[in-house]
Amino acid sequence: TTHPPLHRSTVRRGFAILGHGIRAQPRSFTIATLGASLYAAMTVGSALVLGRVTDRVVLPAFETGAVERGAIAVAAAAIVGVAVLKSVGIVVRRLGATYMQVSLQAMHRRQIIERYQSLPMSWHRRYATGELLSRANSDVEATFWPVAPLPLAAGVVVMLLLAVAVFLATDLVLAAVAFVLAPTIAVASWRYNRLMAEPSTRAQELRAQVSAVAHESFDAAMVVKTLGREEEETRRFRDRSEELRDTLVEVGRLRAVFDPFIEALPSVAVLLVLLVGTWRISAADLQVGQLVQLAFLFTLLAFPIRAIGYLLSEMPASVVGWTRVQEVLAARDQLPWGDVKVDGHGPADVDVVKVTFGYEDDPVLHDVTVEALRGRTVAIVGPTGAGKSTIASLLIRLADPHAGAVRLDGHDLRSLREGVLSRDVAVVFQEAFLFGDTIRGNITLGEPFTDDQVRAAARLAQADRFIRRLPDGYDTAVGERGATLSGGQRQRIALARALVRSPRLLVLDDATSSVDARVEAAILRGLKSAELPSTIVVVAYRRATIALADQIVYLEEGRVRARGTHEELVQRVPGYVRLLQAHDAAHRPGAGDRSVAGS
Most exposed: 114, 378, 398, 409, by fewest CB within 10 Å? Predict the structure, then answer.
């Protein structure tokens, strides 16, 4: 994603983001600002105290050669008291600012994740996983980086007002010197902010790209290693990382130029104050203690004034992060839900009625009608690209058809109340996803199923035997994506996860493709004899799986070419016969060796 140049409105938009943060966390901001204001007041107070101590304790001691113990005690008490209050202000400000910052980050991370969960698959397909992770993490962090110095910057404003009052009350000439230097610091900060806008924007976008490439490489580790793509993936990641490095180096160069300059300005101011102040003392227009007071005040203002510059310098990255976060939160691709609450029990009636659907500009289904009668099993069969998995996705409403309707118990899925479909429908995909949890956790997904229900579902999925042989049985952790299990074991656990819910509609999208024929046959026999309270729609290639069906729907090029029993289709649909023969030949023992030899 590219963004327009930000230098024209960065400050305005940045302060608008901070305003949003203040409205979301008013108490934390108030506490932090009160602490910063106490720190600011005590900073100015420490200069006033030092000036008084110089005039009333230090100079008299030089003049008389004697020191009054009472005066020293009062001076020490004043200095220590101001220092303690100043420390209290620092602690309160940092605690309040930190709590405000992390609370805002946590709140917006939750909002992004909730939005991700509600957005349809059509939206998710437009973004890489690493890109989505970056928006939920680094973009949220960057958005609220300026929150940390915000209370200090607010305290600095208080400090500057008090300092201006002190300068005006002490000496107008030195006040004029201060007023000349203040705009110089402001102009330098403004120029710094403008130059930082573009590289900060580019760096934030490159962070997302680096994250996306890394996630993709890690996710495809098996493909990378088996095909020997390590060097290519390393090069791809290195190119993005080096581009990010170069951009961050550019940011560093800008900081290397401006940071010393802004750092030096207060020191230059102190020198000017001392030079002008010495002349004012020689003219008997200023006292020594007053000069010490003003010079020390300039010294103390050096770091706090930089907080304003730091606040402004972080705004470009904040605006970029906020823009990227808002692109997610403002997404309106949600699938609408209706108010119909289906209270049916037992197997569901499912109909796909004259459905047309496609991805982007690529049509996949054309006027497709499939009827799954209550309690029956329908197999959807066809060559690769015929639209079988697309029908499965429409049945569980990962997308809505462009024309026609998918109905459950006579109700269009779009009219159902949210939650009805996930309660009554379960799906097992060919690629079985397991969480980094125990086997029990992957089957229940946190729902309160009993051990007997879990084991019964695992037995039906032919998973109970191998699970009990694992070191911790059902409490065995399977690692990220079930990495410690084979593909067939992952599929059986995913099938158990669906069966334990006793769904009214069970959708199996080639769900036993990684299971050997003997185990598959046992699964199919179990499903057929279990008298499940389910209507079953199965996307199938294997002859044994197809034999489970009461009716077969044969697809070609996104259209229904035939429907009927296996025997009927064998008699009258040559394409169906060729598909079965090709699959049988490809999976006949030794077929793989022959195909390789003949290639």
Answer: 114
